[in-house]
Specification:
The protein is mainly β. It has one helix at about 1-10, and strands at about 25-30, 35-40, 45-50, 60-65, 70-75, 80-85, 90-95, 100-105, 110-120, 120-125, 130-135, 140-150, 150-155, 160-165, 175-180, 185-190, 195-200, 210, 220-225, 245-250, 250-255, 260-265, 270-280, 285-290, 295-300, 305-310, 315-320, 330, 345, 350. The protein has 1 helix and 30 strands. The longest helix is centred in the N-terminal third of the chain and has 11 residues, at about 1-10.
Length: about 350
């Protein structure tokens, strides 16, 4: 008991200025129920501090500055918080919208963008000061926001069925490229590590859209079209998510909408693999281990007490865990070209490492 009290007192205090520590071993755990961020040391396997007062973190996500010192936390209530991992304090916070759904940091670390449900659109801020830089109205809920090379952000529009590219390479007024007709209700997205391929899930259709960001102009094509054709669709209790790191070896592994399956896609050809993995329920997150050797999957209600581990080579379930209701695997692994590496950790909270 005495040791526990001592740790809690230590965790509540900011770090001393003479405490020298690198940031590469630090990670964060989003404590959704309490609106706080737990800072952990991965080598010591220990919590070293807690940052509170970050608002509604029920659907929080995190990105990191290039030097891995600052974590930018995107809350569901529209809050954008900048957390100093070394001093364990909030370095800045702005309540920029009424309902938000994630964000990204530019490849040079100078801009932070947030995608919003209410009032819609994307808002962009200076990463150092959190001062407003740009407001991009879309007339639609926006989601699937990722960063692309060259100070660009890519995001999709739920009602409009479009993907937009906002290019800030020339300054604070972005050049907007619209890619219409990608499909009904794009809901979430991922981008390949080289920044070339953007894949958006389509909630209203059996299929996904892939966009070649290197093409001039960028072009979209359907992949896995009709993957559920001929079979009765199940009620969808929770939207699948693609934003986590889903590259396992040379294949993307993706949750199927309204099905108890994972879909496998060749990362080069983007052609569907004949391999499909039958799983416990409707998958929400399918998250590859940092080395790609395994995939961890969690599920929508009423099967959300279970996490399954999939072998990448065989596509078979090799382990099933029962951590309890609302279990979540969430991944914040990033390619080295962007703002740090990511790893996935299962559990009721979301764990992120810079």
């Amino acid at each position: 008991m005495i040791r526990l009290l001592a740790f809690l007192l230590l965790a509540a205090l900011p770090a001393r200025s003479d405490e020298l520590r690198g940031t590469g071993d630090l990670g964060v755990v989003v404590e959704r129920a309490t609106g706080s961020l737990l800072i952990v040391d991965r080598s010591e396997r220990a919590a070293i501090g807690r940052v509170e007062g970050l608002g509604d973190l029920s659907h929080a996500s995190v990105v990191f500055s290039p030097d891995e010192r600052f974590a930018y936390v995107f809350g569901r209530d529209g809050g954008l918080s900048k957390v100093d991992l070394l001093t364990r304090e909030v370095a800045g916070r702005v309540l920029q919208a009424g309902n938000s759904i994630g964000g990204a940091i530019s490849d040079d670390g100078s801009l932070v963008a947030v995608s919003n449900y209410d009032p819609g659109g994307v808002r962009v801020f200076d990463a150092e000061t959190l001062a407003p830089v740009a407001d991009i109205p879309t007339g639609s809920k926006t989601l699937g926001l990722v960063d692309a090379p060259g100070r660009r952000f890519v995001f999709s529009l739920w009602e409009a069925g479009e993907t937009w590219i906002a290019d800030f390479s020339a300054g604070p007024e972005p050049a907007i490229t619209r890619i219409p007709g990608i499909g009904a209700n794009p809901y979430d997205a991922l981008i390949s590590g080289d920044g070339r391929t953007y894949i958006a899930g389509l909630f209203g259709e059996d299929g996904l859209a892939a966009i070649d960001l290197w093409a001039e102009p960028p072009a979209a094509r359907r992949i896995l079209d009709g993957y559920g054709r001929g079979e009765e669709a199940l009620p969808v209790y929770k939207m699948p998510h693609l934003e986590g790191w889903a590259l396992a070896g040379e294949r993307f592994v993706l949750p199927a909408v309204g099905r108890h399956e994972l879909l496998w896609v060749d990362s080069r050809s983007l052609e569907g693999d004949r391999t499909r993995t039958a799983v416990h329920g409707q998958p929400v997150f399918a998250v590859a281990r940092p080395d790609g050797r395994q995939v961890w999957v969690n599920f929508a209600h009423p099967d959300n007490d279970t996490i399954q581990v999939i072998d990448t080579l065989s596509g078979e379930v090799i382990r099933e865990l029962k951590p309890g209701p609302r279990s979540c695997t969430w991944n914040s692994r990033r390619a080295a070209r962007r703002s740090g590496s990511r790893s996935a950790t299962p559990g009721g909270s979301r764990s992120t490492t810079p």
